[in-house]
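Justification of resources, computational component.

The compute hours requested in this renewal are based largely on the per-chain cost of generating structure records like the one below. Each record pairs the submitted sequence with a full structure-token output. That output is archived, and it is also reused by downstream analysis tasks.
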Amino acid sequence: MDKIKKYENIIVDYLEDYVQARSHNPNENAPKFHVIADPKRKHYQLVCMGWEDDQQYHSCLFHIDIIDEKVWIQRNVTETLIAKDFVDLGIPKHDIVLGVIHPSERKYTEYAAA
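The structure output for this chain reads:
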């Protein structure tokens, strides 16, 4: 399996597992998780949307891209250390870019600068 396909599988499986572990709300109207995968353009997101107290709720929890054979974590609004989880699942640190960190600061992380 080529590297990009392996990374895509890791990302999508991770997002689906994340949803499975958190989708136990008995309230039928509670916001629901949705995995959005665009393998052609290499964009992957986990969004949560629905209604809460008569208010529409819509949030992107994770946004991950594959750019130049590296996994870019563009958004993470959770306490989950997704980069560490990706390393544990087989993506090396030198292939993970923390896009959520300013470009001038990335060189101080243990992950790829770009």
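The first helix runs from residue 3 to 22. The beta strands are 32-38, 43-52, 55-67, 70-76, 96-98.
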